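Thread: "does anyone have the structure for this chain?"

Original post by V.I.:
We have the sequence but no experimental structure in hand. Need at least a predicted one for the grant figures.
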Amino acid sequence: MTVTQLLFLHVLLLLPKLPYISAYHKSEDMPRGVSRKLSKPLIGEDGRIYGCSGNNFFAFENNGTIAWSLHLDYQCNLSMAPVHGGYGKIYLVAENRILMINFGSTQTSEPVAEIFFGPEHGENREIVIIGVSVSTLSSTVFINMKNRGLFAYRYNGSLRWSVGPVLYHYSYRQGCKKNLTDCYFASVPMLDQCEASIYISNTEGELYCLSIRNHEFRWIQDLSSLDKVFSITPGNNGHVYITIPVRTLVLALDAFSGNILWQRSIGPLSKADSAPVVDTNGWVSIGSLDGFLYSFSPNGVLKKFSNRNTENSVVQVSPFLDCSGFAIYYSQIDMEGKVSHSISDYTIVSAIRPKAALFTMLVPATGSMYWFESYTGQFLTSLSKSDLSKFVVDEEIIVAFLVASNTGNPLQCRTIDQRLTSSCSQARTVHVNIYTGNERAILLFLLFESTLLVVLAALVRFCFTFWTKKKLQAQGIGSFLDKRRSLRHRKKAFDRTITELEQKASKEEVGNEVFEKLGDIVRERECIERKLSSMYSLGRDKTHSQSKSLLPLHKGKTKAKRYSFKDANESVAIFHTVSDTCSSESSIEEEIRMVEGMDLSTKAKGKKPMVEDSSSSDI
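Reply from O.Q.:
Generated one for you, tokens below.
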């Protein structure tokens, strides 16, 4: 991309039919025959234009007359516009101090100037103030001092926080990576009211984004590969715009992340601090020495505007936003001659002797042009006869008066808060997809991740189950598992023995001793089940509410059951008692061997199978 070096030559570029003689509010205070130049203007919420000249501060009505003036003990900085502070206050850079001018909210209030920051009267301290900004929402004044850093002061003058160009984020050094020694903040702190952010650049071409509330680091974007000098314009719409005059570029950055959304080329600019203006629709507009006004949509779509033949015309000052927030005012100067030529990678623009000026009001989003007028128009003629005629002015001041007077504007005016709310609504949340690449591989990875989580959850539950067992307090996991395995084997052995005996008892006659032993086995099996479901449970062992045995056994501490064996000649009744207590493991094994080794054949012939009486009793 071609690098453009700007050189603009002209004879003051002053409108030839406007006289420029210095004046003050009171005629007796005016030094005759001395020209005074006004500082950059500030358009107040009350419709007045504020500016300073030398040691005097002025408030102009929108028709050019002086509303009031105030003598200052210090000479103001003409290159810095006054800053609106809300509540009838204006902050002004004068020498190495910042003055607070309090003019009140009523017509009868007398304006008063006092030192807000800097040495007191008579003191001499080497302080270079690069820029000042005021946040009315947080009631904070931000001051950038050369080689000292950025300072935030409350309205009462107390320090809120301060920060230097070298930041430490999670123990990593951020900022001034290429030159730590001579690096400092080099721009005016610019405020993004929607994001509650501060944008400021350093001498190494790095752009910082900090929080207004506590100077919290948000991001740093290194733009030194393009140039180290650029201007910053907050869009208050989710974007921040960077203008690089030498490269003739406008960049749009995401206010949340600092990523570059788009960049577009424009024509050559008149000065290094040229900055665009952003309207409520989100369109960013800037004038160029090629005679065009460049306007970009929030997505970077370009529109170019010109009311004259651009061959000999220039647009050298930044546009102004009108009171509605949708339209802008800008000026286009028709020169007697203009030459553009390239030398190596540089483009040089030379112009001389302005012939005419055309002022225009338009809405960039629609391209609608509502008003335009040359410098010989009625309003400009009235300005030449007002108090403004006694000052050296330029196009920037004239455009400011056009905006303040709402000249040719059919749109309804809105307050600053209304315009800001509408502008902030233009911001859209951008959802960034963190997964890029092969979607199939991503799905497989997510499946593997889910499976791993399930396995880990099962393992954690398994370990938690063991840990909650009281048995583990006296024995290890290995002993616990061995004991559990032994109990399950015994339970299976009991189940087999009981099944076999029940099958044989249903087919053959058996003795009373067998039934007694069988009852003991059932009782011990139930005891094992209770152990497996309580002390040795893994969460899946269940205790059957009733025994599956066909034998008529009842649970209880002392339950007796009556069994009868009948033949033709006699009747025998047997009472069997069941206890809840468990026998020792050795006795259990002995009983199993005894039962399995017994001869289950019929010992007494003629006996019939045992039948259960319908009556039972508790012992």
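V.I.: this helps a lot. The chain has a mean pLDDT of 78.
O.Q.: and The domain at 27-424 is CATH 2.130.10.10 (Methylamine Dehydrogenase; Chain H).
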